[in-house]
Amino acid sequence: MTIKPIKPIKPIKPTHIYDWDAEPVDERPSEFMNSTSWSASSSFHPPVPVARSAPSRFGFAGVLIVALTLLALGALAIAKIIPLLRG
Fold first, then answer.
1. d(Cα 76, Cα 16) in Å, to the nearest integer?
2. Using alpha carbons only, what angle is made at residue 82 by residues 76 and 87, rounded to the nearest 5 degrees?
3. Taking a C-beta distance cutoff of 8 angstroms, is the pair 56, 62 a contact?
4. Cα(40)–Cα(31) distance, rounded to whole angstroms?
5. For residue 47, with 0-12 CB atoms within 10 Å meaning exposed, 13-18 middle and 19 or more buried, which class applies?
6. What are the residues whose beta carbons fall under 8 Å from the beta carbon of 56, sequence distance 6 or more?
7. CB neighbours (10 Å) of residue 84?
8. Domain map of the chain by residue range?
9. Which of 30, 33, 69, 77 falls between 20 and 30 A from 85, CA-CA?
10. Could you report the per-residue pLDDT of 30-62, keeping only the tens digit for each?
């Protein structure tokens, strides 16, 4: 397996650089134009503050109890099924 060499980046020619004066007026960004409802036509909307929820009453201890309960129920189910499979 051979790795291809990276091609050098072509330098930018001065004829490819446009400044504000060279940009046609009708192609300039719309945020500089007069408008009445910029937010309706734009994808930018200011962030909405999110209300923080109350802290959980159970926390890590609750998660641990649920996990151990599920583990015990699974072990009990396996213990009940094994005699039936040996049959």
1. 74
2. 145
3. yes
4. 12
5. exposed
6. 62
7. 7
8. 60-87
9. 69
10. 555 555 555 555 566 667 787 887 777 778 999
Q: Are 28 and 21 in contact (CB under 8 A)?
A: no
Owner of token pair 């599920």: 70
DSSP codes joined into one string, 23-37: S-GGGS-GGGS--S-
* Residue 14, token pair as written in the block: 């001065």
pLDDT bracket for residue 70 (50, 70, 90): very high
30 closest CA partner among 44, 16, 18: 44
- Amino acid at the residue 3: I
